[in-house]
Specification:
This protein is α/β, with parallel strands linked by helices and about 325 residues long. It is built from 12 helices and 15 strands.
Length: about 325
């Protein structure tokens, strides 16, 4: 059994494999196994891997079941103490593994850890998908240390302390394999986007901690599978955010939160339309319809909920604080300008 399995879920990502896999192999510690889980790619990924990296283990999924199903199917076949779920469009750095494994080894109460995520295209800035640790407000809106909505900070070392966070990015997520399987992995109904937030919320319900270890640094391209301006991404984000809330909110919080979220999502749809992004407007309404369609199914997924976890959410509205009060920076506790 390897101590750490770094698993890249690939879907038509030959370009990124060629660019970033050699760097990953170069900086992988000796106790690490690097594995490619392929989601039924239709490009030349498999042939490329077999020709250029014949020593790499390849797991070939029968279909593209998205991020969640793709990883679930692959990780059932991998025996390791820790997993690292790593996006194919991530450039790692020397010694990026060691600080996180040291943290996991010395803190059994920590189940999930992410590195500091910086932008590959502007390495002085945090990257949208996870920055220096993920948080969520009481209405379900996710944000990060270093990123509030579209506002990205420059990295000046201001968030280099390892702290407990609410969620860790799926772009580079380290997790104890025993915890991953105890929770039956990622929720496959999400397909892609926000499944890691749901997973981390369930990890916390078990009493474990989620952390960021900024001594570990990686660079993320972002939008490698779905571009940032994709209406499908809008659909998945809005739909899955509602899935996330229905699954994990304490019962007494469900009605008050959704009475606020539906109007706010409708306002977002109007703003998309005013900006000329009518496909995104349609995506929001499609997301709401899909949520209603799957309401009963999602409700059945509610597992034992620790109400104290909800108390770890940011108690103010990040929408109001950012768009009305113009606050753009979150330090892990408070927002400021």
């Amino acid at each position: 059994m390897a101590k750490l399995a770094i698993v890249i879920l690939n879907w038509n990502g030959q370009k990124f494999l060629a660019q970033f896999l050699p760097i990953l192999i170069k900086f992988a510690p000796e106790y690490t196994e690097v594995i490619i889980a392929d989601n039924a790619s239709t490009d030349n990924s498999i042939a490329f891997l077999k020709t250029n990296f014949p020593f790499i283990r390849i797991i070939q999924n029968n279909e593209n079941g998205g991020f969640s199903k793709g990883y679930n199917e692959a990780l059932r076949l991998i025996d390791a103490k820790y997993y690292c779920l790593l996006n194919s469009d991530v450039e790692v750095t020397e010694n990026w593994v060691t600080p996180i494994i040291s943290l996991l080894d010395s803190h059994p109460e920590v189940a999930v850890v992410q590195p500091k995520l910086l932008s590959y295209n502007d390495k002085k800035k945090f990257e949208y998908a996870g920055a220096s640790g993920g948080f969520i407000d009481h209405l379900g809106y996710p944000f990060c240390r270093g990123r509030v909505f579209e506002s990205l900070e420059s990295d000046n070392g201001q968030y280099d302390d390892p702290i407990e966070v609410f969620w860790a990015t799926g772009a580079a997520l380290f997790v104890r394999s025993a915890v991953f399987h105890a929770l039956n992995g990622l929720d496959e109904l999400f397909f892609a986007h926000m499944e890691e937030i749901d997973f981390c919320w369930r990890v916390k319900n078990l009493g474990y901690k989620v952390m960021v270890e900024p001594k570990s640094v990686v660079y993320h391209v972002g939008g490698g599978t779905l571009p940032k301006n994709s209406a499908k991404k809008t659909y998945l984000n809005f739909r899955n955010n509602m899935f996330l809330l229905l699954k994990n909110l304490p019962k007494k919080k469900l009605l008050p939160v959704f009475l606020l979220r539906f109007p706010l999502d409708n306002i977002a749809a109007i703003f998309f339309l005013l900006q000329g992004h009518w496909r995104d407007t349609v995506a929001v309404y499609r997301a709401q319809l899909s949520f209603l369609k799957h309401f009963s199914r999602i409700k059945q997924k509610r597992t034992p909920i620790n109400e104290e976890v909800f108390n770890q959410t940011f108690r103010k509205s990040i929408v109001f604080e950012h768009y009305i009060k113009k606050k753009t920076r979150f330090n892990g506790k408070t927002l400021d300008n």
